[in-house]
């Protein structure tokens, strides 16, 4: 067992756990932050999508030992600015996107990162860009997700 | 663009019989604050079908009495226990004895109560009730029945509560009760005076339980029902605060995973290295249980590592050595013969195979259990918690009353959570360890050992003579769908009331849900089920998507044989104007018959069930550039480019929620017809995760989606949860056939393609999590 320190949703956290435990379980089972969901554990369903240093990643596929003290991890719980929701969260509510909601934290974190990526690369947030998002929604609310991403992007 | 609108109602007199201002019975319950309850009264709103100038088929059971009626009749004797409570803070509470897995019934129930009590939707608190054995059959969520069965009793209770509050308010104001009104939780009197519900909750309470007559709000004065309402838990969802079972922090309920057999339903024998595994990092307990070897650990990751390290001698499973072909052979051997011999007219025969499909939701099977010597407490997403409570009590050796079942909100169900496999295992593990457990199935467990939609075949024979269809016969033959305990008991209980005769349970449900809605002369529909060795469940319908696909493809074939346009043919042969209105709506809005490039085509499908009708017009692109478009580790294939869908489900509580349910069904239909199936090989299902089982993704979903909500001005809501699939399945299959010139004989159409993936091993049972996640950031 070894000690790992990093920043989670703006707070310094320290945990004692084996290096090879994937970050998803450190966040959920040890730190009790449960926004990122388990859906496959092999970086396929993307339900755990969160941000590391501002970029989308899947903590189910990152050993905690690979996280450095200066890494900033943001889960869905850290996306809003206090009570002020992120424009993507607002778009999600406005379009009544969620059904069961299980995949939605990952969907929103993926959407924010995809929009940032498109902006950085000078691309439009169009259907082609959205179809690069691999997150599964088993309730099948894909069409509202598409609308919300486009609406959210306009306010980002 | 998906959007909804209220279209003008189809003209059909049978739907307009009004409930009117008739009186319902409610109960005042003796309690410190105002508590009311309600009892159901039978309403026959939906009339019989009309006859047409074609050769009429005699009425089929669902046209007069369907599964929703059966579920409501079963719920009737206990529905008077549904209680609405007015709290001291002026809010109104209701514990809904149903399970919400994303279908939005908490929101729609808030709306129903808010409407009747003139409250804002957010002034109504709806939670999911714990298991209440006294409710008998009235705590089952299935068959798209929730709103249909609970709509009236909830309104009766709410109306009674409001009446009592008005009376109490009028007394305090010293005004005539006929002059006071309610709005947003206030009783308003003349002269601008008002009293909040909070000040009346105790005053309006009853010291005795008594029966009271009550009149419901007239539909014309509805201001909440029928208005688009966003889900009331949306903010919790988008901020990560919505709590699912595995998010609950129950003291000492540590992650628990079961090591499962390579064979479907294989069972554990000896474990070679149990002590070694017990000493692995984070591991607290390892014990054999009936379905495998259970590991409890500090984190799920460590439990999974320990599961994969176990060396277990496995006993063979229930379908050892078998594969798709051997099971299909059994199913085909059980197909019932047609009643009308070939050659009566011009005979068209078609047969279809529907392969196994996974009902996996994104939240895998899960449950928290804390089993003690004298009591047990469980938390899980259960659609039938009463039956679960009874079975858990048996496992724990406890009386039913010592078992508490908390129903958590579920991360999708689609039929899967009618069963409670995880609750039974969690109880067994907690008992074996003597400690609380948070049990979760891994994705590989859920995909390979979890419940499936069964393999089935559809055979259809039609005989045509000139412009008439003389006979139409359909045989649905299936690996047995396990219906108990989710739907079985209420249907059996209602069977004595339904015009069914002496049918088995599966036959009853088939007979209660399936109808051939065309005037096709002699019409027979039979179900036969074989092979009980699989873990099965309904999956956004039990039979309808498959039965409707076979039927709608056949309808196109009959039209083709007669040289008729598929739309005009359906228009002529459909049994009701209500169905024709839905068909017309999609044909008009979706521009049926418009010119399409070669390799692309439109297709139609219709369906009737759940007191409603649906129609779908699909456009598909089967051109090679589209079919072969590259997607890493994904299945592309033909692209459904546009879906125009019309639904008339009677009274619409929440158009946004109804549209969401249709959207989900449409995306499920894409998966069932084009991309998603399980392959049985050597006694196990090959697919172990979402990179093997190709449920609809963003790159499959139709870029153009138009959902039209038709208002038939019916007085009651029908069912919605499963209603988007059947018509869409048929329409996609027809569009594919018209685009390619090939009528598919099996579904999904890619089932026999080479695997676009390397199958994952069965031992160890769980694919290891990658370690390169930081190489794939964006």
From TrEMBL, chain A:
Record Gene3D superfamilies: 3.10.20.30, [2Fe-2S]-binding domain (1.10.150.120)
Residue stretches making up the [2Fe-2S]-binding domain: 75-150
InterPro entries cross-referenced by the UniProt entry: 2Fe-2S-bd, 2Fe-2S-bd_dom_sf, 2Fe-2S_ferredoxin-like_sf, 2Fe-2S_ferredoxin-type, Aldehyde_Oxdr_Iron-Sulfur, Beta-grasp_dom_sf
GO molecular function: 2 iron, 2 sulfur cluster binding; isoquinoline 1-oxidoreductase activity; metal ion binding; oxidoreductase activity, acting on the aldehyde or oxo group of donors
2Fe-2S ferredoxin-type domain ranges (all copies): 6-55
Keyword annotations from UniProtKB, A to Z: Oxidoreductase
EC number: 1.3.99.16
Pfam families, sorted: Fer2, Fer2_2
Name the UniProt record assigns to this protein: Isoquinoline 1-oxidoreductase
Source species: Pseudonocardia dioxanivorans (strain ATCC 55486 / DSM 44775 / JCM 13855 / CB1190)
UniProtKB/TrEMBL annotation, chain B:
Regions of compositional bias (Pro residues) in chain numbering: 757-768
Keyword Transferase: no
Region feature (Disordered): 757-778
Domain Aldehyde oxidase/xanthine dehydrogenase a/b hammerhead: 239-318
Pfam families referenced in this protein's UniProt entry, alphabetically: MoCoBD_1 (PF02738), MoCoBD_2 (PF20256)
EC number: 1.3.99.16
Key words, A-Z: Oxidoreductase
UniProt superkingdom: Bacteria
MF (Gene Ontology): isoquinoline 1-oxidoreductase activity
Keyword rRNA-binding listed: no
UniProt xrefs under PANTHER family: ALDEHYDE DEHYDROGENASE, BLL3820 PROTEIN
Name assigned to this protein: Isoquinoline 1-oxidoreductase
């Amino acid at each position: 067992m070894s000690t790992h320190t990093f920043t989670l949703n703006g707070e310094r956290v320290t945990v004692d756990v084996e290096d090879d435990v994937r970050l998803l379980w450190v966040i959920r089972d040890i730190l009790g932050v449960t926004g990122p969901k388990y859906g496959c554990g092999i970086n396929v369903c993307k339900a755990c999508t969160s941000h590391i240093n501002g970029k989308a990643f899947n903590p189910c596929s990152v050993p905690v030992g690979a996280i450095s003290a200066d890494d900033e991890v943001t889960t869905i719980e850290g996306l809003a600015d206090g009570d002020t929701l992120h424009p993507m969260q607002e778009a999600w509510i406005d379009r009544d996107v969620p059904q069961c909601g299980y995949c939605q934290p990952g969907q929103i974190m993926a959407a924010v990162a995809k929009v940032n990526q498109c902006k950085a690369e000078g691309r439009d947030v169009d259907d082609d860009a959205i179809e690069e998002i691999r997150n599964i929604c088993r309730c099948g609310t894909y069409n509202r997700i598409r609308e919300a991403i486009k609406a959210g992007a306009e306010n980002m | 663009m998906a959007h909804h609108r209220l279209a003008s109602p189809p003209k059909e007199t049978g739907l307009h019989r009004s409930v009117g201002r008739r009186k319902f019975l409610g109960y005042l319950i003796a309690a410190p604050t105002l508590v009311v309850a309600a009892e159901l009264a039978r309403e026959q709103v939906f009339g019989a079908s009309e006859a047409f100038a074609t050769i009429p088929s005699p009425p089929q059971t669902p046209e007069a009495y369907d599964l929703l009626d059966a579920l409501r009749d079963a719920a009737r004797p206990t529905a008077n226990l549904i209680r609405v409570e007015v709290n001291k803070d002026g809010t109104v509470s209701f514990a809904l004895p149903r399970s919400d897995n994303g279908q939005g019934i908490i929101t729609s129930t808030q709306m129903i109560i808010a409407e009747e009590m003139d409250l804002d939707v957010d002034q109504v608190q709806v939670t999911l009730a714990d298991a209440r054995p006294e409710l008998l059959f009235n705590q089952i969520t299935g068959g798209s029945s929730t709103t249909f069965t609970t709509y009236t009793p909830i309104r009766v209770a709410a109306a009674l509560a409001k009446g009592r509050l008005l009376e109490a308010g009028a007394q305090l104001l010293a005004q005539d009760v006929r002059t006071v009104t309610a709005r947003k939780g206030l009783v308003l009197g003349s002269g601008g005076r008002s009293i909040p519900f909070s000040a009346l909750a105790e005053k309006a309470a009853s010291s005795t339980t008594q029966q009271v007559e009550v009149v419901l709000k007239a539909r014309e004065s509805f201001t909440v029902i029928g208005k688009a309402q966003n889900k009331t838990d949306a903010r919790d969802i988008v901020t990560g605060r919505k709590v699912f079972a595995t998010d609950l922090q129950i003291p000492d309920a540590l992650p628990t995973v079961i090591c499962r057999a390579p064979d479907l339903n294989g069972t554990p024998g000896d474990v070679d290295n149990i002590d070694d595994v017990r000493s692995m990092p984070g591991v607290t307990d390892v014990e054999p249980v009936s379905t495998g070897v259970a590991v409890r650990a500090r984190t799920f990751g460590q439990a999974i590592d320990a599961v994969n390290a176990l060396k277990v001698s496995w006993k063979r499973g229930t379908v050892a050595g078998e594969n798709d072909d051997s099971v299909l052979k059994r199913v085909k051997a059980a197909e019932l013969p047609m009643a009308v011999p070939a050659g009566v007219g011009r005979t068209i025969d078609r047969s279809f195979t529907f392969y196994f499909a996974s009902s996996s939701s994104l939240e895998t099977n899960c449950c928290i259990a804390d089993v003690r010597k004298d009591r047990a407490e469980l938390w899980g997403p259960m659609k039938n918690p009463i039956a679960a409570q009874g079975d858990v009590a048996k496992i724990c050796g406890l009386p039913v009353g010592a078992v508490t079942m908390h129903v958590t909100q579920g991360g999708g169900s689609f039929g899967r959570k009618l069963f409670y496999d995880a609750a039974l295992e969690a109880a067994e593990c907690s008992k074996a360890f003597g400690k609380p457990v948070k049990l979760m199935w891994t994705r590989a467990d859920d995909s390979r050992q979890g419940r499936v939609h069964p393999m089935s075949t559809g055979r259809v024979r039609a005989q045509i003579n000139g412009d008439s269809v003389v006979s139409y016969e359909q045989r649905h033959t299936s690996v047995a769908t396990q219906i108990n305990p989710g739907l079985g008991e209420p249907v059996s209980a209602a069977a004595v009331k339904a015009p069914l005769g002496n049918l088995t349970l599966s036959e009853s449900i088939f007979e209660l849900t399936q109808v051939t809605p065309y005037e096709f002369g002699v019409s027979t529909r039979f179900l036969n089920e074989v092979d009980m060795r699989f873990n099965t469940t309904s999956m956004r319908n039990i039979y309808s998507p498959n039965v409707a696909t076979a039927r709608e493809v056949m309808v196109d074939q009959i039209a083709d044989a007669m040289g008729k346009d598929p739309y005009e043919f359906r228009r002529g042969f459909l049994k009701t104007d209500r169905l024709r209105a839905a068909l017309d709506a999609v044909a008009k809005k979706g521009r049926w018959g418009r010119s399409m490039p070669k390799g692309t085509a439109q297709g139609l499908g219709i369906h009737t069930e759940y007191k409603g009708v649906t129609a779908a017009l699909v456009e598909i692109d089967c051109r090679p550039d589209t079919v072969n478009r590259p997607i890493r580790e994904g299945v592309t294939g033909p692209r459904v480019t546009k879906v125009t869908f019309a639904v008339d489900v009677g009274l619409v509580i929440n158009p946004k929620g109804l549209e969401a349910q249709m959207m989900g069904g449409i995306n499920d239909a894409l998966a069932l017809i084009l991309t998603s199936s399980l392959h049985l090989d050597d006694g196990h299902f090959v697919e172990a995760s979402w990179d093997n089982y190709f449920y609809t993704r963003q790159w499959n979903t139709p870029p153009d989606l138009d959902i039209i909500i038709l208002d038939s001005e019916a007085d009651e809501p029908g069912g919605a949860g499963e209603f988007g699939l059947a018509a869409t399945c048929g329409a996609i299959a027809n569009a594919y056939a018209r685009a390619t010139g090939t009528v598919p004989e099996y579904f999904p159409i890619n089932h026999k393609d080479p695997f676009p993936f390397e199958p994952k091993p069965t031992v160890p049972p769980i694919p290891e999590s990658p370690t390169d996640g930081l190489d794939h950031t964006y």
